[in-house]
Design brief:
It is built from four helices and seven strands, in the order αβαββαββαββ. About 35% of the residues are buried. α3 packs antiparallel against α4. A hairpin with a 5-residue loop joins β6 and β7. The chain starts with a helix and ends in a 16-residue tail after the last strand. Strands 2-4-5-7-6 form a five-stranded mixed beta sheet. Strands 1-3 form a two-stranded antiparallel sheet.
Amino acid sequence: EDLLVLARLDEGRLPLQRAEILPDELLTTVAHRFGTRARAEGRSLAVEADPGLEVVGDRLRLEQALGNLVDNALLHGAGTVRLEAAGRDGLVELRVADEGPGFAPSFLPHAFDRFARGDEARGGGTSGLGLAIVRAIADAHGGEVRASNLAPHGAVVAIALPRKAPGVEADPASGPDA
């Protein structure tokens, strides 16, 4: 599935079903999906979103990208996993942060490369495609991604998407064949 998503993106034919999305609802949906796992691991998930934000995008693809980020935070991070949405410079930034050791500084420039893994010993059979898919989904939405470490510890990955402007509607022609 992951390789198929990347292949479709390479060919410029990843279908996007664009609709208006409220980031707080999007983040809450993803947090609920991972709630049982987080509790089983003695971890918690927190959602915080600036009010009044909207984006136009493919909800399922954005859930996939955020799900990859939460999965990574639960797998490699520690403490509370925070899912946040904030408006910044005409963008909506969707962030997933944790309180773990953060990314190795040498990994950050390659975090979104295919098959890149921050710690080979912790790979645990992962493909190293999760963050590449996050970037590909952000790119397909006209957005961008960044990964960084938090002080004194922790990691954050942010997906910045164009903010829905008043009067801008979802694209009705963006069906599966668009």
